[in-house]
Amino acid sequence: MSHSGPVSELGVESLTDQLRNTMSYNEDNGVNVNKPDFRELDLGSPVSPLLTRPGGLTSTTATSSSSSSGSVSGRTATGPSSNIPRISDSNYNSHSGELSGSSVESSPKNTRNFKPGHGRSYSTGTHPVIYSGGGSVNSPALNVFPTGNICPSGRILKTGMTVRSTKTDVLRSGTANYGHGSIMRGGAASKPGTTTECGSANYSKGLVVGGGGGGGEAMRRMGVDNNNDPEEMKRIGNENYKKGHFSEALSLYDKAIAISPGNAAYHCNRAAALMGLRRFAEAVRECEEAIRLDPGYVRAHHRLGSLFISLGQVENARKHLCFPGHQPDPVELLKLQTVEKHLSRCTDARSVGDWRSTLREVDAAIASGADASPQLCACRAEALLKLHQLDDAYLALSNIPQLEPYTTYPSQLKVFGMLPEAYLFFVRAQIELSRGKFEKALAAIEKAGQIDCLNVEVSVMLNNMTLVGRARSNGNDLFKSERYTEACSAYGEGLRLDPSNSVLYCNRAACWFKLGQWERSVDDCNLALGIQPNYTKALLRRAASNIKLERWAEAVRDYEVLRKELPNDNEVAESLFHAQVALKRSRGEEVYNMKFGGDVELVSGLEQFRAAISSPSASVVHFKASSNLQCKQISLFLDTLCARYPSVNFLKVDVEESPAIALAESVKIIPTFKIYRKGSRVKEMICPSPEVLESSVRHYSI
């Protein structure tokens, strides 16, 4: 209504009462005037309490008429407050995660002035609406937002009022900021139309965190405010990349590419993340795609050049590093030149069979930057094999980078004269053959032949392997027929074709043993063990041949190695015992009363004790007490040593049952171990560890 004159005192009181009534919510009759003022309502936000004005007033409604010639003091102001937060009208394209200008509807032009420090609440049809997925946010006049708690319905309530419905809205996959307060929504699912999907908006200083889940929640964890903006995803992906979080960066670049697949920079960045994850084949494809989209993209060319250096492809690397019209990166160019120099020397050394130089140069090439090249790793394995280091060669073969086939191998690219993939199978075939895995070796060389059927080395290797297999099979048949001389010739023919085959050397050693030519048997075993140091069969045959040659120390040494490799093999243990006895005899030591495989003998009398320790072989005596827990634990280990060292006499004395022995031997602490030889004590150990005890037993067992 309008007033034509000054308001009388009565009129002011009536107006004040009227305003008070209009700013009330009647709980009894359910009348909602829809112009509520508010006092603080606790929604249980765990983020921060909501700020309120003194006296509980946060927002008032200006109701004075524009046509009134008078005014109600304190109800109006001459202009908008500079302290009221507002959304900028500028267009946001800075990829900072803020809403773009198109996401927010413009404010109404007809605005009203408010007193500084006061906001405004709206009646029906003007509640703030959060919308995502390219929609808009309806903002009230002057982009002014309430500074208090916002209920699910959007109303501002005063303290003491209750929310009739216990259902809560669920704000999913997005964030929105309202005023100064911090509101966290979540919980039960809401009715259709009350859920905001995948949107994000910034309103003044507050924070609204949505419940629910989906891709937006994952994006928020990675720092993405707007998961529909590929530039924002790229920016956050770059931050993750700088921190070394390559998987997270890759995921963000993937999403950016899904939105904008034609952006060359996204593919180039994805290649960088793949390089960090050492997925080089995929990284090559991504760089090639970036160059296809933008042929003049210098960074993509340089990144692809660096990739090719890592893969050992120097010609491809030079083509992209030295991109026409652009200066190459001096660091990468120097790396390229260094790798190329060592590769050239490696090729020359391999061609003349200088395997030590080959190994040195290939290691230098890998250290210079070609550390992801499967072919160089294979060359290293081949050089180790030729140097008779089979275990190291097999380990190097196992560590070859596994790259799935990709299309960046030009048809003219060769590695030591053969196609790159063929060379990998070529080396594998040689190593498997030397390990005696003939079937695996044959399968590998046949695969190499299918890939590069015109290569001479592959063809010769395939032919030789067929002949070696035939010689091996023929030799085995002759050995079974006890035609040992002919079997030696058959194995020798196989060795002529494959001089690095440890299995053929060992098989021929068995033939020499049967023919009584033990020296030649030892020689072939030495050749086999030079290629494969832990070859059990070769150790057994060499030890047996040394026994025949009465080389007891060498036999004992081999059997002790075998005892560690085969701790449960009773035949090896017995052979070791007899070799140790023979060694003692050869040294002039008395070896009577020595038996294989005895138990720990209990000694109870002093005379029995003195007779037992008078043996020329070592006697280990355990002084113990049945009630002592530590003695019980070490006794179990002593049983193991008794089986492991059959040439040693193991005795035990219970000091509680035989105090005379303990007194005679001055035993005061248990468990105590003493080692005797010919009645004299040579070693004493008090409470030894199992390792110390075994070390002493081993020392005195020979």
Explain what you see.
The chain is mainly α. 47% of the residues lie in helices and 5% in strands. The protein has 25 helices and 8 strands. It has helices at 9-22, 215-221, 230-242, 246-259, 264-276, 280-293, 298-310, 314-321, 330-351, 355-367, 374-386, 390-398, 420-434, 438-451, 456-480, 484-497, 502-514, 518-531, 536-548, 552-565, 570-586, 606-612, 629-644, 659-664, 690-700; strands spanning 175-176, 182-184, 207-209, 601-602, 619-624, 649-654, 672-677, 680-686. A 5-stranded mixed β-sheet has the order 4-6-5-7-8. Strands 1-3-2 form a 3-stranded mixed β-sheet, with no helix packed on it. A hairpin with a 2-residue loop joins strand 7 (672-677) and strand 8. The chain is flat. The N and C termini lie far apart (120 Å). The relative contact order is 0.04.
